[in-house]
Design a protein that fits this description.
Shape: globular
Largest sheet: 7 strands, mixed
Order of helices and strands: EHEHEHHEHEEEEEEEEH
Number of strands: 12
Number of helices: 6
Helix content: 25-40%
Structural class: alpha/beta
Strand order of the largest sheet: 2-1-3-4-12-11-10
Length: 197
């Protein structure tokens, strides 16, 4: 099977690190900023960054509705940190005008683990990933308050859900792209390959 083409939403956030991690996980990776670029990809990563800024830029760049349509149509999507907020159906502590794409029946609390100076790393056991825990980097990270019946909790930390999957959509509170461990990206690349079959 040919190598999947996975886009990284390049409106704001740590785009370059995801491009590197996806390439290491045997995918073609490219930054995506326009609807016509989105139409070409087999999967999409929504990086960490600032979720309110990202949602505003998605509107400005004309990406919000095309993104929602592709998610509804089954495009595999992986959201990290702010990306997790973007794929949530509901947000707590968000701005009134903050938009999400949806995709996972979950309620996410923004900045739940604290401010920038309270960032930390922790070993996280993620269901479906072999070889021991992954190193999770938490930077102003959200956590999941609750999930619906269709969503599967893949990991928790300190009693809070930090990784979730529903169908073709994966989300983590933490940043695996910052660690050099590409197993979470490899899991997502496998999801993309399965969706193409």
């Amino acid at each position: 099977m040919s190598t999947p083409l996975i886009g990284v939403l390049a409106l704001q956030g740590d785009v370059r690190e995801h491009l590197v991690a996806l390439a290491a996980a045997d995918a073609q990776a490219r930054p995506i900023r326009r609807p016509e670029e989105l139409a070409e990809v087999d999967g999409l990563v929504i990086p960490g960054g600032e979720s309110t800024t990202m949602s505003k830029l998605a509107v400005i760049f004309g990406m919000l509705e095309p993104l929602r349509e592709r998610v509804r149509a089954g495009l595999p999507v992986y959201g990290t940190c702010a990306g997790m907020i973007m794929v949530a159906d509901k947000i707590l502590d968000g701005r009134e005008d903050q938009e999400t794409l949806g995709g996972i029946d979950m309620i996410v609390r923004r900045n739940a683990f604290g401010r920038q100076n309270e960032s930390f790393e922790a070993a996280i056991d993620v269901a479906g990933i072999e070889g021991g825990p992954v190193e999770g980097v938490f930077i102003r990270a959200p956590w999941v308050e609750s999930v619906g019946a269709a969503a599967e909790v893949l990991a928790t930390y300190d009693g809070h859900t930090v990784a979730v999957r529903q169908g073709n959509v994966l989300a983590t509170s933490f940043h695996p792209e910052l660690t050099g461990d590409h197993r979470v990206h490899a899991l997502f690349v496998d999801m993309v390959r399965a969706a193409r079959r």
